[in-house]
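Hello forum,

I keep getting stuck at the same step: I have a sequence, I want structure tokens, and every attempt I make locally crashes halfway through. Rather than fight my setup again tonight, could one of you with a working pipeline run this one for me? It's a single chain of 334 residues.
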Amino acid sequence: MKNEIKSLTGLRGVVALWVAFFHFSFFRNEFIQDIVGKGYVAVDIFFVLSAFLLTVSYAGKFKELNYKPIEVFYKKRINRIYPVYIISVIFIVLFLEKSTIVGFFINATLLQCFFNPDYLLNVVYWSLSTEWVCYLVFPFMLWLVLHYKIRSEVLIIASVVLRFVLPYLPGHLYIGSEHPMEVGESPRYLDLPYGLVSLLRTVSSYFLGIGVALLPQFKMKKENLIIYIILILFVSMLFVEKGLLFIPLLSAFMIKYLYEGKQNYVKTFLETKAVYFLGNISYSLYIIHYMVKKQDFAIVNNYHLNNLLLISLSILLSYFSYMLIERKLKIFKV
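Reply #2:
Ran it on my machine without issues. Output:
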């Protein structure tokens, strides 16, 4: 990958592993569970990171709405997400779970966020659906921001305000809402993975990623100290329920510092071979881990050891997925 920031790839790996532990494990230790049990907000970090990187990559190209750059953008996005995704959908339908033709079509076209969540073939697909919709509108969203010179601060404030009101919006904003939802709604604060509310959640993260990416470069003394303070605040917010509102914001500024800042202990850790490896396979891991989780394999009797082995199995399968599908299979030549 050209101009790759290895620490941001590593961050993606940490976030994917956090999601995996969130889905697999429950800990009686309150301190550990307060961290693991908030893993659902890790998805918002994915969204913010994607919006940030897309903005710094395409800000120069989307100042004007020209057909060719937009076409290339869409082709690259399809190449990035669709091969592993559609293979996982087909595998689930053939071997793991029954689906109607309508259900298969909704999943295959990444339209789940518009329909009853009972159509979800894999719990994590909701985020792929909402991010795909954001990909579709991203060139026009970024053009509007650049063309009308919308201030970064406005986008950041709009993101925080939107995220604040999300829990108060109706949770059944999707097609087919006259039918009861079997999957149930989460009681956790800001755990909003269904319907148009989940799409607004993703849009909020995109506003934040775009806004922070377009802020002037940070230049201040002791900037390494700033990123450590952000990290401490980030962890602290996990122990305050309503503090989760600020997790995406803190992660956005952390991403900004990792992208522009000098070397520090956080960057060094995220650039280590093991963490960087997790970052490379993070997309496959995000999809595959819940497929493994749903099978309820019992390798050993010990609960935590069994979960650790299943997460390790997910990582192994994700490595093969990354090597054989992500790196090899492209739908479009770009």
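The chain has 14 helices and no strands. If your local run keeps crashing, start a new thread with the error log.
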